[in-house]
Structures
1.
Amino acid sequence: MGGTKWFLIFFLSWIFSIRSTVELQSYQNQLLIQLRKHLEYPPVLDAWESYVGDLCNLSSTPHLTITCQDDSVAELKIMGDKLVKVSEFSGFAIPNHTLSQHFSIDSFVTTLTRLTSLRVLSLVSLGIWGPLPDKIHRLFSLELLDLSFNFMFGSVPPQLSRLVKLNFLILDDNYFNGTVPDWLDSFSNLTNLSLKANRFTGRFPSSISRIKTLTDMALCHNQLTGKLPDLSTLNSLHVLDLRENKLDSDLPVMPKGLITMLLSNNTFSGKVPVQFCQLSQLQHLDLSFNHLSGTPPSSLFSLLNIRYLNLESNELSGSLPAYLACGSKLGFVDISANMFIGRLPSCLDSMADKIVVKFGGNCLSIDDHDQHPQSACDETNREAKRKRGRTIGVLVAIIGGAVLFIGLLALGVLLLCRRYCSRASEQNIISKAVQDKSPTAVSSEVLANARFISQVAKLGTQGAPVCHVFSLEELKEATKDFDSSTFMGEGFSGKVYRGRLENGTYVAVKSLPLLKKQSVQNLKVRLDMLSKLHHPHLVCLLGYCINSGGQDDCNSNKIFLVYEYVPNGNYGARLSEIYPEKVLNWQDRLAILIGVAKAVHFLHTGVIPGIFKNQLKTSSILLDEHQIPKLSDYGMSIIKEETDKLEAKGEGPKSSHKMNSDDDDVYNFGFILLESLVGPVVTGKRETFLLNEMVSFGSQDGRRRMVDPIVLTTCSQESLSIVVSLTSKCISPEPTTRPSFEDVLWNLQYAAQVQATADADQKSDSTS
C-alpha cells in the first residue's frame, strides 16, 4: 500500500513538471510572436508564420538565431534588411527606413524584458527608432547587447550600467547623442565597446581607462573633443579605433598590448611619442590627417610586427636617417603630404617591390616624384615656429592682461559699477553693430571650387600612387608608336592600347580627343583627382599626357590616360564563354556584381562631390588574374564636365548632370544584372528587350525559358528571386522608383548570403 502511495506522488510530480515545461515553452513562444508583431513582421521572421511547435527548435540562419536553455530563450539574434543610414534624422519615423510611426520602443522593450534568461541579444538593421528605455536593465543576465544599424537617439540610459555581466556593448550606426557615458567602468567584465558612427560630443570619458578587461574599443566617426587620457593601464586592449573625431591633445601613452591603433582625421598635435616604439605587438598604426610635428622616431618603422604605417598629411619634418631599418613584416608606409627633406631611406627605396611606399608632397631629394623644393619646407617650418612664438606671446599677454584686469576690477568695482556697466553695454552694442556689418557672403562658385580642390588632397588617404605626367615620347615608346599590334579595342570613350613602360610595368593607354574649349589647367586638376581615387574594384589611373599641340598630326590635341593593365578580359566576354573552365557560375557572377556595386557606391558617396554617369556596362568590368572585378571608364563625366560648362555659355553644368545622375548608373547597372541573368543576348537590345521579354520574368516558366542555363543549374531559387526583383527595380522606367546604390549593394550581398547558406545545406545533405 505504501509503495502505491509513493508511486502516485512521483507520477503526479512528473505530470506537473511536464505541464509546467509546456506552459513555459508556450509563454516564451508567445513573447517571441509578440516581438515579431512589434517589429512589424520583418521578412526575416516570416518562417514563424507557418511554424508549428517550439520556436527554440528552429534552425539557425545567418540572419536569425534562437537558442534556448532550460526551456527559456537564452540567445536571440535578428538581422533585418534596413541597413541604409540616412544623413538627416530628426527623431521621427521615415518610410522604408524605420519602423512606422505606430511603433513604440517602450512597448517593444517591455515585451523584450520578459525574456529574463536572455544572455545574448542582437537586434540589427530592424529600423527600431526612439530613445532606448531605462527598463532595458531588467535583462540582468545579458552578456552581449548589439543594437547597431538602427535609429535610436538620445543619451545612453544610465540604468544600463546595472548589466554587470555585459561583455559586449555594441551600439554602432545609431543616432545617440550627448556625451559618452562616464559610468562605463561599471562594466567590470566588458571586453568589447563599440559606439561607432553616432553623434556623441564632448570629452573622451576618463572612466574608460579604468575598464581593465577591454580588448576592443571603437568610438570612431563621432565628434569627441579635447584630450585623450593616458590609456596605458588598459593592459588587455588590442584594438583602438578613434578615427574621425575632433580630439586635439598630444598623443598619450598607449598600452603595450595594442595590435591596431587608428587615430586618423583628428587634430592631435605634438610629436609622435617615443613610447610608441615599445609597442612590440603593434601591426597597424594610422596617424594620418592630424597636426603632428617633428621627426617620427626611426624605431617606429622597425617594430617587430608592424605591417601598416600611415603618417600622411601631418606637419612632420626633418630628414629620415639613411640607416633607417624597416621591419620584416612591413608592407605599407605613407609619409606623403608632410615636410620631410633629404633622401628617402634605402629600406623604403630599395624594398619597393616588397613595401608599398607613398611619399609625394614632401621636399625629398628625389627627382620627378611630386616633391616641393626644400626651401618650401624650410619656410613652412620657420613660419610654424614663428606662429608658435606668436601664440605663446598672445597667451602670456592674455594671462597678464587678465590678472591686471581682475586687480583693477576688484579695486574699482564698488565706485565705478554703474559707469562700468553702462560703458560695457555701449561697447557690446557697438561690437554687435560691427559684427552685423561684417561681410560674410562668399561666392558659391568659389566655395564649390574650394570644395572640389580640397577633396583632391583628402583623397590621398586612400593610399593612391602619385599621378605621373607622361611625355608623348614615353607613351610612343611604350606602345611601339601606337602600333596596331598593341591595339586592344575601341570603346565609347576612345581607343585603348597595351603598353610597357621603361620599368617593365604593363599599362593600358586610352586616347581621347582634346577639345579646344577645354581648359588644360582645370583638366589637370580633375585628372589628379581621378588618380587619387583608390578602391580595390576600380582600375587605377596611373598618369596622363595632354598633347595640346605639335607637329604630330595623328596625336595632337589628344589626352592620353594611362591605367593599370588588367590582364584577364572583361565580364561581358566571359559571359559569352562556352568552355567549361571559363564559364562563370552563379556564385562567381554574384561576387563580380558585388565588387562592381562597391566601386560605384564608393564613387557616389565616398567622394565629394560624387562621381556619377560612369558608363556602366559589362565590357567596362575588367577581371584580373584572380577574377577580381575592376571597373574602368569611370569618371569620364568629370573630364568632360569642363566642356559641358563652356557649351552652356556661362549657365553652369547641364541640368541633366544633376537630375537623375544617380539613377543613370542604377539604370545601367540594371542591364548589367540582366545580362548576368540571361547572358549577352540582351546586349544592344535594352529597351526593346524590356518591352518584349521582361514581363516573362514574373513566372517560373518564363525564368526557365530566359535565364542562362548555367545560372539555373548553380543558383538557389531564393537567391535568384532576390536578383530578379532587384533587376526589375533598377530598370524601372520611373527614375523615382529605382533603388539607391546602397540598396543595390545590400540586396546583392543578401542574395550571396542566401546562396552560400543553400550551398552549405546542399553540401551537408550530400555528405550525410
2.
Amino acid sequence: MGVLSEGLTQVLIPVAAFIGLGFALLQWFLVSKVRVSGNSGDYSGYKDRLIDGGEEGVDHLEVSIKVAEIQNAISVGATSFLFTEYKYLGIFTGVFSVLIFLFLGSVKGFSTESEPCTYNTGNICKPALANAFFTTIAFLLGAITSVLSGFLGMKIATYANARTTLEARKGVGKAFIVAFRSGAVMGFLLAANGLLILWVSINLFKLYYGDDWEGLYESITGYGLGGSSMALFGRVGGGIYTKAADVGADLVGKVERNIPEDDPRNPAVIADNVGDNVGDIAGMGSDLFGSYAESSCAALFVASISSFGTTHDYTAMSYPLIVSSMGIVVCLITTLFATDLFEIKHVSQIEPSLKRQLVISTVLMTAGIAMVSFFALPSEFTLYNFGTEKVVKNWHLFFCVSIGLWAGLVIGYTTEYYTSNAYSPVKDVADSCRTGAATNVIFGLALGYKSVIIPIFAIALAIYVSFSLAAMYGISVSALGMLSTISTGLAIDAYGPISDNAGGIAEMAGMSHEVRERTDALDAAGNTTAAIGKGFAIGSAALVSLALFGAFVSRAGIKTVDVLTPKVFIGLIVGAMLPYWFSAMTMKSVGSAALKMVEEVRRQFNTIPGLMEGRAKPDYATCVKISTDASLREMIPPGALVMLTPLIAGIFFGVETLAGVLAGSLVSGVQAGGNEHAKSLGPKGSDAHKAAVIGDTIGDPLKDTSGPSLNILIKLMAVESLVFAPFFATHGGLIFKLF
C-alpha cells in the first residue's frame, strides 16, 4: 500500500476539483469587472459609461455601444449554432445509447445471473446486463460533460472578446491579462469538471458493483466514448463553419476587393468571428476533454485487471485521478505567473510570457508527479501485460508520466518553431510569396510535412520508455502526463481565438490604428499558441489511442496481433486509408460551404448600393445562416464514417481485423495531423500579400478542420472498440464464420 490512505484520497480528489472550479470563477469575476456599455440586453444600457482613460478625441460612448453590438451579434450567432448542433447530437446520443445497451446486453443473452470474473479468476462478477446499463449511463455522462465543456468555453470567449478590445485602449498588458484570464476560466472549468464528474461516477457505480472492480472500471470506459463522440461532431461541425466563413471572407474581401481583414463592409465578417468561437474554442474544449477522459479510462481499466484491482487498493487505483488533481494545483500556480507576478509592458513580451507558461507548468508538474508516485503507489506491484504479470516499482511510473509530460513540451516547442514568424521556417514561406501563390503553397506544404518529424520521434521515445517500464499502463499514464497540465494548455489555446475576436471587434468598431496594432500583436502570439494547442492534442491522441488499443486487445482476449496474418493485414491497410478518406470528406465539405459563402459575399458587394463606400450595411445574417446550415449538414458523413467503421469491422470481420484497423489508422492519422499554414509578409494589397492570403486559405481547412479532427478519429475508433469489445469477442467476425 502507498502512504496515502483511502479516506484521504477520497477527500483530496474532489477538493482539487473544487479548487479548480473556484479559481475559474475568480478569474471570470476579475474579467467581468471590465464594463461593456451598450443596449444589447445583457448590460445596463447607455448610462453605464465606459472604462476610464483610453483614446483621446474619440467619442467613447459611440465606440463602446458599437463594441457591445458587435459582441452581441457574435455571441448570438455562436449560441444559436451550438444549440442547433446539440439538437442533432441529442438525437445521435439517444440512438447510440440504445445501441450500446443492446450490443453489450446481448453478450450473455440479456442474462441477469452473476458470472465468473474474466481476469480475477475464482471470483464472481456482476452480470453483463449490468455492465451494459452502467456503460450506457457513463456514455451519457461523458457526452453531457463534453458538450458542457465546449459550450461554457464558447460563452466565456464571447463574453471576453469585447472586454479585451476595450482594455487594449489602456495598453497591451491590460488586454493580454483579460484574454489570458478568460482562457484560464475555460481551462480550469474543463479540467475540474472532467475530474469531478469522473470521480462522482466511480463512487456512485461502486455502490452497485461493490468488490467487482473489473466490471466497474470496464463500464466507466463509456465516459471516454461519450466525451469523444461529441468532440468529433463539435470539431468537424465547428471546423467546417469557421473555415467556410474564413475562406469566403478572405477570398472576396482581401484578394478581390482589397479591403482589410475584419472590415465591417465584408458580409462574412461576423460569421468569421463566430467561427473562431465554435471551431477553435468549443471544438477544442470538447476535443481535449475527450483525450483527458479517455486516457483516464484506459489507465483505470488496465489498473483494474492488475494487482491494484485484485487487491482493491483504492489509492493506487486512483493514481490517474490524483495526477490530474495535482495538475490543477500546479496550473493554478503557473497561471499566477502570467496574470499577477509578471507584467507585460511591451508587445515583444507576449509570446515569451505564453511560452514561459508551458515551461513553468512542466517543471512544477514533474515535482508534483514525483510526490504523487511516492505517496499514492506501493513501492512494488504487478501490472497486467497481455496475459502475463509485469513487476513494476513506483519510480517506474514517475518516469512514465514525466516522459509524457516532457514529450508534450517538446511537441509544443517544435510546433512553435515551425509556426512562429520569429523563426526561419515561416520566414522562408513568406519569402516564397514574392513569386506567387503556387510557390507559397509548395513551401507551406513542405513545411507542414517537415513539422511532423520531431514530434513523432518524441512520441516514439515516450512510447518505448513507458511500455518498457510499465507495459500498457505505462503508456496510458504517459498520455495522462501529457494532459496533466491541460488547464494551462487550454488557457494558452483559448487565448488565441479570444485575441483574434478582439482584433476583429476593434476593426469593426472603427477604433484607432494604435488599438488595432495592439490587438494584432495579441492575435499574432495567439496564432502560434493555438498551433501549440493542436500539437498537444495530436500528441496526446497518439498515446491515448495506443493505450486504448492495448486495453481493447486485452479485453477482446487477443494474445498477439500478428501483422502477417491476412485478417490483421487487411485491417491494417484499410485503417491506414481511413484518415485520407476522412480528410477528403472534411476538405470537400469546407470547399463546398466556402463556395456558397464566396457567391453570397460577391452577390452582396455587387447588388447592395453603397456597400463598398461604407454607406450601407451588409446582410451579416445570411452569411451566418450559410455557415450554420452547411456545417450541420456536412458534419454527418465524416462523423458516420468514424462511428460506423469499428462496428462494421468488429461485427463482420472480428476482433483481429479490427485490431489491424486501429493500428493502421493510428499510425497514418498521427502523421497527417501535422499540417500548418504560413503567415504573410509584404504590404497589404501587394501581389506577395495576395499570394500569402491564397496560401493561407488553402492551409486553413488543413489546420482547422481536417488536422484537428484526425486526432479524434484515432482516439474515438479505439475507445469505441474497447467499449464494444465484449460484444465483438462473442458475436463478431460473421464473414469469417460463414466462409
3.
Amino acid sequence: MLFLCSLLVIVVSLNNIVYACDKDPHQGVLVVAVGSFLPASNEQGVNWSPSETKGQMTFNPVTCRYETVINRLLTNTSYEWKVAFNGNWGGDKGCNGGTNCQFNSGSTGAVLLIYNPFSGQLTTISISSSETTAPDASTSAPSVCSNSFKDRIVRASGDYQTELGSAALYIGCGNGSNCKFSTSASGTVELVFEPNSKQLSFRPLATICGNGQCELGETCPSDYGKCPICGDSICQTSETYQTCLQDCSNELSGCGIFKEENCVDDSQFHATPGVEEKRWQTPKPNMNATKYKRYTSAYTGILSAVITGSDRSTLELPELDFIWNAKLIFNRSGDYRNGQKGAIAKMFGWTHKDVKEKCEFLGKAGYLGVKLFPVHEQLMSIQPFENAMNLWYFMYQPVSYNLDGRMGTREELHDLIQICRSYGARVYIDAVLNHFTGVGNDLNQHRNPNSGCVKWGNKTSSTPIERQSPFYTHGKAPSNEFPAAASGPEDFHCDRPNVGLVDMLSLGASGFRIDAAKHISPEDLSAIMKKVQIKMGGKLPDDFFVWLEVLTGGEAQYIWTGPSWYGTKFTNILKQDLILDSEVDKIKMWDGLYPKELFHNPTVPRHRVVIQNDDHDQQNPVHRNFEIRLFTNPNGVTDNNNDWPIRFILSSYYHAYGDLGIPDGKSLRDLCTIMCETCRKSVPYIKAYEPMACAYVGNGHTRTHRDILVINAMRAWMKLTPISGASLGTGHCT
C-alpha cells in the first residue's frame, strides 16, 4: 500500500489489474529509451545516444513501470532499443542477456515502450497514433507525516485478489472479519487504512475513460496526457526541480546555491549533522561484511571475485593480483641500497603505453625507477573549464580507487609495472587519499555565483565506459557519495569532499607520493601507513617508501597543523604505529621548495627528505645545469652521498597550446559538446614516446631523462661508471 500522510492507500482496478507504487524505484535517475527509432520518430532525436533526453521515460505509479510513447515512425518497420541511465552506458537494460530489444512499428507507426524496473523486462505495445501516456510523477508524502507502520509491508488482501494473484490477512473490520466494498461502474476503488486507528475504509473512484481528465486511479491511455508530464515545459503542482528539472527551475532565485553543509567556522572538520540521512546510494561500512577467504603465496593466479547480494544481484570486482606474483626486480650494480637511494624520472602527461616503452631505457641508464601521476578513476568532462578541455588537475579529482585513470587502464598499468621491474626500474605512483572530486552527477544544475553564474552539468570519468563508477553530489542540499569507493556522506568534512594503496602494491608498485598530505592530520597519515604495514604482512617491503606533500614554507598556512608537527612530533607518532626506525625511515617528506627555500623544517632528518628542481605544479623552462647540480652539488648539501637519497627529475611537455591541457588527445576542443564557445584552448595529441627523440627538441614533450649529461651526473652519484649516449640511442643528441 502507498503511504499518504497518515493514510495507507492502494488503488485497485479490477478491469485492468494495475497497482499503485509507493515511490519511483529510480527516483533521481534519468531513464532514457535509446535506439535506432529516435531519428525516425516525432522526437527527431539522436541515434543510440544515452544522453538524448528526447527519449526520456517517465514512471507511472499506477502501472509501476516506465513508459514513453513514440509516434510517426515508418509503418511496418523494425527498430531496436535499450534503456540507459543518467546519460551513460553501463548498467543499461536490454533483452536476452542485455542485447538490443527489437520491435515493429506496425500499421500505425506508434508504439508504447515499457520498462519494468522491478523485473528489468522491456516490452513494446503497438497503439493508435492518437494515444499518449503520461504518468503522475509525484505521490510521495510530505516529510512532516508520521507513519507508524514504517518499515513494515502493508497489503490490502481479499477476494478481489483472485485476479491480482496474492492472498493475505492482517487487519479487518469489526472483530477482525473481512471488510466489504463494492466497485463503481469504472471498476476502480481506493482502499484506505488509517494506521493509528487501524480503521479500514474504501471509496469508489469514478474514472471516465476519454473525458480528457487525469483522475485518481486513471487507467485510460487516452487520458494520461492530462496527467503531469515531465518534459512538457509546464511545472505542475506535483512537480519540483528535483523531480523534473526540465519543467521546474531551481527553487533558489538568481544564482543562489544551497549552503546547508557549510562549515560553521574554520575549526569544524567533521561532517555536518544530519548528512547521514542523505546516504542513498552507498552501503554503510562493515554491513554484513562477514565472509572472507584467505590466500597464500601458493596461489599464483589472477583472482576474479563476484559478490552476490541477498536479492541475488551480483557485483563483479576488478581482477585482483597478489604481491608475490609481481616480477622480481632485475638486480643491477650501483648504490641503490635496496631501493632506498636513487634517481626517479617523473613522467607527467605520459600514457602508460608510452612509459612502458621507456622501461628498458630507464633501467639501462641507471634510474631507480619511474613515477606515474594518479592512476585511479578520475573526473572527465564534455564541457570546457577555464577555457580548456579536461585540465591536467582533473587527474587529481578521483571518482573511485579503481585503477582506470586517464593515462591508461588497470591492465596497461599492470603490464607497465611488470616490464619496468624486469629491467630493474621500480614504479612509484601519485596517490590521492585526501579528497574525491566535488563535481558529481545529480539532479541539480551546478553553478558558481562567484564566476558570473557559470553553470555546468554532469561529468563522466576516465574509466572505459562499460565499467565506469557512479558518483554523486546530489539532493536539495548537496551531499557526497562515491559507491565504488564505499564512501558516503559521513566520510567527508563539511562543505568539501574529503583507500587503494595495497591494490597498487599488489600489482608491483614500490611506493607513492601522497598528494595533499598537508590537509591530512599527522595522526591519520600515520594510521594509514599502519594499515598498509598490517596488510603487507606486518612489515613494509624493504624497497618501499612514500613521500608526503607537506609544504612547510610558502604554503604553511594551508597545512593541517603547524610545521613543527612534521618534525619530531610526527616522527614520534610514526614510531608509535610503525615501531621500528627502519619502518619510519620509509615515510619521507617532499621539500617542494627546494632549491630556492631550504630547511623550513630542519627537524626532519635529511635521509627522510626527497628533492627535485621542477614539478608539475610549477614547471619552468628546462635548465640542464640545475639538473646536473641536483646530483653533483645540490643547494645546501653537507654529505652528498647520504643527504636526500631520493631525487627526482621531470620529463613533461611544453605548454605550447596553453598551460592547462595535456597532449594526450583528451584535451582537444573536438571533445566539447556543451558551452563550446568558451573553449578557446585545444591541445592536440602528441605521442610521448619517440625512440630517437632528444631531451629538449620540438614543442611536444620534454625528455630530461634522456639528457646524457644529466644521466652521467646521476650515475656518478650512484657509484656507476659513465655511459655513452650511443649505447642509449642518444648519440645524435647534443
4.
Amino acid sequence: MGSSTAYGRIEMEVGADGIALITIINPPVNSLSFDVLRSLKDSYEEALRRDDVKAIVITGAKGNFAGGFDVSAIGGCQGGTKQRPGYLAVDVITDIFEAARKPSVAAIDGLTIGGGLEIAMACHARISTPTAQLGLPELTLGIIPGLGGTQRLPRLVGLSKALEMMLMSEIVKGDEAFTFGLVDAIVSPDELVTTARRWALDIFESRRPWVTTLHKTDKIEPLGEARDLLKFARAQAQKQASNLKHPLICIDVIEEGIIGGPRAGLWKEAEAFQELLYSDTSKSLVHIFFAQNGTSKVPGVTDVGLVPRPVNKIAVVGGGLIGSGIATALILSNYQVILKEVDEKFLQVAIGRVRADLQSSLKKGKMSHEKFEKTISLLNGVLDYESFEDVDMVIEAVTEDVSFKQQIFADLEKHCPPHCIFASSDCTIDLNLIADRTKSKDRIVGSHFFSPAHAMPILEIAHTKQTSPQVIVDLMHVGKNMRKTPVVVGNGTGFAINRMFFPYTQAALLLVERGTDLYQIDGAITNFGMPMGPFRLADLVGLGVAIETGTQFVQNFPERTYKSMLISLLQEDKRAGETTRKGFYVYDEEQNASPDSELEKYIEKSRSISGVTIDPKLMTLPEKDIMEMIFFPVVNEACRVLAEGIVINAADLDVAAVMGMGFPPYRGGIMYWADSLGSKYICSRLEEWSKIYGEFFKPCAYLAERAAKGTPLSSPVQHAAPQL
C-alpha cells in the first residue's frame, strides 16, 4: 500500500518480520517535495499505529535514497503554516520520525543529499552502500539545510567535519562517511535492505542501541574548542566570499544549537531558511542551477533523436599549455589519447606537462600511484599522423596561425577515418576560415577549453552552418564525460564567451589612460566578486596572449574597440606577466602579486600615444562607477551576441560568464544581473559615457530597443535565427 501525489509517491510494505519498508519513489533521483514529505508522514504514522509493525526501514527506489528537495518545488514554502520548514523540521522530522516509539533505519544508496540526508540522520541508524553519495549542498543554492541538518550533522560527525561538509557543500561516498560516523555500517547494494531490516529488529529487541541523533553529544567538541572552530569558520567564509551572508548565517545557526540546545537550533534554522529562501542571492543561485542544466538542451540538435556515437580514441595536435591541458583532461576521463608534436623536444616537454599535472594530484592525495600509472598509460606521444587511422576525434591546439591550421585540417582529412570529428580549440579565428582547405566541413567544430583545461568546468562548443548536429551531440557527450558543462554557440570571432568579455580589459585600459588608478580598478572588480581584476587576469594568462586575442577583436570590430598600447609597451620591455615575474604587477617566487610603482611611466607613454588626457572625474571614481564602466560594455556586447543568434538563450551566457570567466554565481550571471539593474539604467549610463568617451560605450540596437520598451535583456529574441 502507499500514497501518491503529483510530485512522486510513497509505498509501504509490511513484512512477516514486522518491518514496515517505506520507499520513496519520485524519478529520476527521488527528489523531495512538500507533497512527498506529507505522504511520508502519513505512511510513518500508519506504521506507528499498526500492531503488526515493530520497526521501520526507509529507502528509495531504483538505486537512490533521496536526491534532496526539488528546487522548483521549494516555492511551496509560501503556503500556510503547514508548509513552512519549521513545521517540517520540528513537528514532522523531529517529533514524529525521530521521537517515534518504534525504531527506524535508513537504507542508503545512490544520491542521499540535502533533505534526503536530513531524513536519514533523523533515523536511529543508517546503513549505506560504499558508493552512496551523501552531503548537504544547500549553500550552493543560497540557503541552508532546512530539515534539521545544521543540528544533526555536527552531532553525528563532530563540529569540524560538519562545518567542512556544509560550508564546502562537500559530497562524500558511503565508505568515507562510515569512517567518521555519518553511517553505521557499509554493505553491498544486494544486502542493503536485508541488513537494514535486521538492524531495525536488533534495535527493537535491544540488541543494538537506540540512538536519537538530536540528543547525541559525544561527537561535539568541548565548548572552548567549538567556539574556536566557529570563529575560524567565520573568518574563512568572509575571506572566500565577503559579499555572501548565508554561510555566516549557517554558522550562527549551528552555534545556536551548540550553545542554546538542539531545539533552539532547529527553530533558528527554520527562521533563517525561510528568510534566505527569498533572498536575491538564493534566487540568483537557483537561476544558475537551472541555467546550467538547460545548456544540454539545444534546439535542432538534442531534440531530433540523435544518440552520441562511441568516442574511444582522441588525438590532440599541439602540446603547448592548452594542448597538454586538454590531453590531461582527456586521460583523466579514461580516453585513449594521441598527442602529436612537431619534433621530439617539443613532444617531451608536452608529455612532461601532462605528467606534472598528474603528479600534482598525486602529491595532494587526490590520486593513488596505481591510478597515476593507469592514467598516464593512456597517453601516447607521436610525431606524425600514422597512428591517426582509427581516431574518433582530433582536437587541434596549435598557435594562432591561419595557414598552419588550414594545412593541419587538410592533412587530417587524408589520415583520419571518415567518421572522425575535427575540432579546433581556437576561439579567435573563424571556423569557416580554418576549414577552407577541407571538404568535410560538416565534421568541423569548435571545442574551446578554458585554461587550465583539466580544471575549468566548461566546454564552449561552436558550430558553423555546415556542422552536422551529430558531431555536436558527440562532442557534448565527450564534454559531459569530462565533467564539463557544454555551452553550444554559433561561429564567429571569439565565439560567445571571449567575444562577450573582450570589452572587460579594454574598458579597464580606457579608464587607466584617463586617470583611474590601475590597482583601484582591480580592487573594485574583486570586491564585486570576480576572482581577480582585469589586469591581474592579463598577467595570469600572459600579456602575449592578451595581445593576440585583442588584435583579433580590433581587426573585426574596429568601430567599437578601444585601442591602447599599454600592454604592448609592457610586452616590449619583457614584462610578459607571471611567467617573467613582471607585468602589471611584480611577483615573488611564490607568484604573490604586488603593485609596481614603475608602471606609471608605461601608462604615461601609452596615454601620449593614444592622444588622451587625464579626466579629473575618473581619478576619483567611486567603486560602483568603476564596476559599471567595466561591466556595462560587457553586457552591451552580450546583447550583440544574442541579437546575432550566436547564442539563442540568454541563460547560456549566464552560465558561460560564471563558469568561463568567474563572474560571481550569486549574482546570477551577466544577463540576469543586468536585468536586476534594468535595461533603461544600463542604456542611459552607456549613452552618457559614449558622449564623453566615444563609440566604445555606444549602446547597441538590441539594448537601446529593449531599454525604450522596458523589456528585460534576457527575454527571448524574436528574430534571432539559430545557426543550424
